[in-house]
Design a protein that fits this description.
The chain is mainly alpha-helical. The chain has a single domain (about 90-535), classed as Glycosyltransferase, CATH 1.50.10.10. About 40% of the residues lie in helices and about 10% in strands. α7 crosses α10 and α10 packs parallel to α14 (about 390-395).
């Protein structure tokens, strides 16, 4: 693959600040043509209640053209350097060179980055493919560096793949399903390129990637915010693509809760790890994708119906997650004192969780100040494990209230050794081991304790932590984590993950020059240098979605 010659950062300019979020004023845009209009309240500052009222009055076709956060010059902008006293680390140039080496071309145009560029590995497996979730940090790096065409090509190409017929054995997948990955095959004889997509039929366990569609919507919004280019999101193809993805999630069934029911291995944790049910990662991405789609869908006949369903689901989902998935010291104490076998609508212990099922580790892990969204909630089952990606996305999407967001940051600081250690960042905590490992993972030799998805440390998560830290006004946490990463990442060859309780050892099966480890580092560095980049992947809280949460009292005095 031909990499671009330029390995540094472009000099580009920024046009707005971190506070500028999706501008979306229904009453002002009703029945008016799209214009370049002055800034009004953003959609993120408006409530879903207002939007629901607005939908009854009529429809409009476009959202505002203000874009955010624009592009800065990377690491040598005089203004930003003076503001943050931020000097480029020697790793930055190496990271950009490695990222450009990973570019994949289709008919001469870059359409993504391969998962890993590790020539030392004998087994390629599917690491030479472009993964939708893996490309997200690469895309953000290119957007922040003023190179949006690569991202646009990726969005268009994966949207085209969505339209393919998808079958596993004799079963046809839903029309809106997005691929987990795709591979470009070059034929030097015929001088032609061919794309092969994987929708789960080749994946280990044959599980379709639930998160791919959500990441696609989130990335489309990031592209739109970064460039100010509404034309891509407004195309009939993108509008249909968003509706198809959300139709898969919003269809009515036997669900009694607004969360999405998923199979094990349907997300970044793509092997059996006991996350079946309603994993926090999927619920947080679902919430964020719904909010991003809400800001981009047109209010035509088809779009309006989808928007109405999104608004209702967002209200229900935010209440459910904030009420039942949230755990802090007080809530843990309440669950510990739960009564069981409660019947009728007056039940407080609604999921009939048996207090004796609470694992011993969580009592010591929970600080007096701090909290987090637990891994899973379903009938008679609560997965108390910490999952980094889901909690960071909860902060960025404002699924977490401002108070909950600060509590998550408090937890990370209080439990630094457990969640960060010597290499950021634990994908899950704690590891499962012994008999539980045999039952939950099926004796998976890759997910042994403190390795890979089972308590391994993943450098890619650095960009999510950094974004969450900036949004909550705690950049010092991100700086500390970045400093840790810089002591090892380049020297170790940009590994996919690290093993051990403290993340001290390069993972036993970790690929080197893992693209999203490289891109995650670059995105974290660029956001620290220019925090306005956060606007691409952050949504402000909607005040109308904040429920009044009362502490449970399911115990006898």
């Amino acid at each position: 693959m031909d990499g671009a010659k330029e390995t540094g950062l472009r000099n580009v300019s920024s046009t707005c600040s971190i506070s500028e979020s999706d501008d979306y004023d229904l009453s002002r845009l009703l029945d008016k043509p799209r214009l370049n209009i002055e800034r009004q309240r953003s959609f993120d500052e408006r409530s879903l209640g207002e939007l629901s009222i607005g939908l009854t009055r009529g429809a409009h076709d476009n959202y505002e053209t203000t874009h955010s956060p624009g592009w800065r010059s990377g690491f040598n902008t005089p203004a930003s350097s003076a503001r943050n006293s931020f000097e480029p680390h020697p790793m930055v140039a190496d990271a950009w060179e490695a990222l450009r080496r990973s570019l994949v071309y289709f008919k001469g145009q870059p359409v993504g980055t391969i998962a890993a560029y590790d020539h030392a590995s004998e087994e390629v497996l599917n690491y030479d493919q472009v993964f939708v979730r893996d490309f997200v940090p690469s895309a953000l790096a290119f957007l922040m560096n003023g190179e949006p065409e690569i991202v646009k090509n990726f969005l268009v190409k994966t949207l085209h793949l969505q339209g393919w017929e998808k079958r596993i054995d004799r079963f046809k997948l839903g029309e809106g399903a997005m691929p987990a990955s795709f591979k470009v095959l070059h034929d030097p004889v015929r001088k032609s390129d061919t794309i092969i997509a994987d929708f789960g039929e080749s994946a280990i366990g044959r599980v379709a990637p639930v998160d791919s569609g959500f990441w696609w919507i989130i990335l489309l919004r990031a592209y739109t915010k970064s460039t100010g280019d509404l034309s891509l999101a407004e195309t009939p193809e993108c509008q249909k693509g968003m509706r198809l993805i959300l139709t898969l999630c919003l269809s009515e069934g036997f669900d009694t809760f607004p969360t999405l029911l998923c199979a094990d291995g349907c997300s970044m944790i793509d092997r059996r790890m006991g996350i079946y049910g309603c994993p926090i990662e999927i619920q947080a991405l679902f919430f964020m994708a719904l909010r991003c789609a809400l800001s981009m869908l047109k209010h035509d006949a088809e779009g309006k119906e989808c928007i109405e369903r999104i608004v209702k689901r967002l209200h229900a989902l935010s209440y459910h997650m904030r009420s039942y998935f949230w755990l802090d010291f007080q809530q843990l104490n309440d669950i510990y004192r739960y009564k069981t076998e409660e019947y009728s609508h007056t039940a407080v212990n609604k999921f009939n969780v048996i207090p004796d099922s609470i694992p011993d580790w969580v009592f010591d892990f929970m600080p007096t100040r701090g909290g987090y969204f637990i891994g899973n909630v379903s009938p008679a089952r609560m997965d108390f494990r910490w999952f980094c990606l889901g909690n960071c996305i909860a902060i960025l999407s404002s699924l977490a209230t401002p108070e909950q967001s600060m509590a998550i940051m408090d937890l990370i600081e209080a439990r630094w050794d457990e969640l960060v250690g010597e290499m950021p960042l634990k994908i899950a905590y704690p590891a499962i081991e012994s008999h539980e490992w045999r039952i939950v993972t099926g004796c998976d030799p890759k997910n042994t304790r403190w390795s890979y998805h089972n308590g391994g440390s993943w450098p890619v998560l650095l960009w999510l932590l950094t974004a969450a830290c900036i949004k909550t006004g705690r950049p010092q946490i991100a700086r500390r984590a970045i400093d840790l990463a810089e002591t090892r990442l380049l020297k170790d060859g940009w590994p996919e993950y690290y093993d051990g309780k403290l993340g001290r050892y390069v993972g036993k099966q970790a690929r080197k020059y893992q693209t999203w480890s490289i891109a995650g580092y670059l995105v974290a560095k660029m956001m620290m240098e220019d925090p306005s980049h956060l606007g691409m992947i952050s949504l402000e809280e909607d005040k109308q979605m904040k429920p009044l949460i009362k502490r449970s009292s399911s115990w006898t005095c």
